[in-house]
Design goal:
702 residues; 19 helices; 13% strand; binds flavin-adenine dinucleotide; five-stranded parallel β-sheet; five-stranded antiparallel β-sheet
Length: 702
Amino acid sequence: MATKKTEEIIEAAKKTAKKVAVKAAQVALDAAEAVVNAAAEKIQEANIPVITPKDAKIPEGPLELKWTNYKNHQKLVNPANKRRLDVIVVGTGLAGASAAASLAEMGFNVLNFCIQDSPRRAHSIAAQGGINAAKNYQNDGDSVYRLYYDTIKGGDYRAREANVYRLAEVSNNIIDQCVAQGVPFAREYGGLLDNRSFGGAQVSRTFYAKGQTGQQLLLGAYSALSRQIGKGKVKMYTRYEMLDIVLVADENGEKRARGIIARNLVTGRIERFFAHAVVVGSGGYGNTFFLSTNAMASNGSAAMQMYRHGALFANPCYAQIHPTCIPKHGDFQSKLTLMSESLRNDGRIWVPKKLEDAKRLQAGEIKGRDIPEEDRDYYLERRYPAFGNLVPRDVASRAAKERCDKGYGVNNTGLAVFLDFSDAIQRLGKDVVAQKYGNLFQMYEKIVDEDPYENPMMIFPAIHYTMGGIWVDYELQTSVKGLFCIGEANFSDHGANRLGASALMQGLADGYFVLPYTIQNYLSDQIGVPRMSTDLPEFAAAEKAVQDKIDRLMAIQGKRSVDSIHKELGLIMWDFVGMGRTAEGLKEGIKKIDAIKKEFWTNVYIPGTADHLNNELEKALRLADFIEIGRLMAVDALHREESCGGHFREEYQTPEGEALRQDDKFSYVGCWKYMGEDQEPQLIKEPLDYEFTERKTRNYKN
Ligand SMILES: Cc1cc2nc3c(=O)[nH]c(=O)nc-3n(C[C@H](O)[C@H](O)[C@H](O)COP(=O)(O)OP(=O)(O)OC[C@H]3O[C@@H](n4cnc5c(N)ncnc54)[C@H](O)[C@@H]3O)c2cc1C
């Protein structure tokens, strides 16, 4: 007979055996589930369409010969035939204006459209800091390869090698072209063009014209454009907004872009325009966030029109948050102001070391200059000794957020860090600092009412640029035949993060040096296509759809202004699809965006009528698309289970808080195909197989 003690032992043994069995069963179950999941993933993978390098028209051959080979073998259009072909260019920013001027100079007939009252007022005019090129004037070790490498690495290895190499290659031509146009780049005492440094590079390769580089470059492009307007080769349509693209099927049933529907913003009249090809350079969609550094009229509607017609939307979640913007100061603000990245050449970024100092700054009891040197934490120099204050934007933005989240923010909201020039003023003198950055200092003082020569500037990250955009092949053609996309509007060469001074380079590369070649490869097959009448049923149907949408919006007569709904969307985007993203937050964000869509389409109020100038109607049409883009950004961000560049999924970070890529799973361009109103979009992948570059973890520490 078992004693009580033995019984206890048997009972305990039974319990242990049960636990072990349950654990073993659980392990077996987990293993089985993993196998099933892997199989399901494989099946799903197998169903996801893939874009091959051939589909993307990437030329064969060594990296440095691809573009040369392409140009040597592409089809050309002879001068007599060029005169018979019409091209619509939407946009007069650096991309649109340079493309329109170049195509007209070559002999095509160009119809050029923009929203503003002058081509010169496109958003590009705001660009401050500069434009990159691999001239190596500084003799500091720059080269085409190094510019290529920095750009690919800066984008966290999520861009096409062939495109980025071409961009670096033509960068030098851009500088020559602009100098020939008379763009007043800053010069050294000896007369050579001067350069300064931008983030993500250890060389000085940024050409600049004070803090107004975009304006000067745009004036150059505008003068080239004006010459063509004068010659009658460009017909300019200012204050016209494209509201749709018209596709007409060819004899094989293939749909091709053959024109646009645009609204004359002054008279409200909706008009039809034909062309043999349509080029869209409509800029980025950063204003989805309502508050951004973008111009007020910047929008994503042209991109959505292309998307609805079958052009793929690539990497919509890749949006850039710029670290040096003037912090938000109130709830009634409609715009954020950028302080150029060039300021990080000489300005040092810091927050107090002690929390009590941060609290006193937040309470307005002391100023930045009151904090002694030994109590300042130059956190970028501390964390990233090799690049210091010139780490790329995504890294600098996250580091600022990290300090502010820990309570070290320096303004009344606790959401700001210092950008300090006291060192530079001591080293170079106030006059030299003023010569380099004077207009930026003046702008800061006007907005913040504080003298940045006396007290450090306050800055905070803000939405600035969108790397995502319409997918284009190597020829800059979208997935719709005859529809091209250039500049910030396309998914561009910047991967998951754009380096400073590379947007102007890309916009002008596209417009002056790439599209003028590649579009001929398409147009050479169109020389036999006669001009079409805009009375065709395709034009009539597109116009009717536009008119119906406007009528529907005007009929809502709800209670909320366009801006109030846009502001709500912006907050959701910042909170759920902003600097730090999580699966849970993104799912919540999608639900909230869906609710906003409902609110917009039932409760928006647009005063006035549609048959004359109506700013609120313009904004409502753009907001309808921002809502869709916002959702697409969230869907893309949710599917991309990794952190790369500006896309930071909090679940995927290193122990030091750096972005953690998953190259084995996500080394592809995520392209989304429109499947109809309120339908989930379909994912299509363009794998990024790196042939020429070794992918590494980005390191700016040593
Ligand atoms: C404040 C600021 C500073 C910057 N500084 C720099 C810098 O120093 N260096 C750098 O490389 N980059 C900089 N950038 C980024 C750079 O300025 C932009 O990426 C670039 O200028 C975009 O040029 P774009 O031609 O593609 O588009 P945009 O300049 O945005 O032009 C878009 C054009 O499309 C037109 N348009 C849009 N939709 C329609 C429609 N539906 N119908 C008709 N027309 C339409 C507009 O009217 C406009 O003419 C900066 C950006 C900001 C916001």
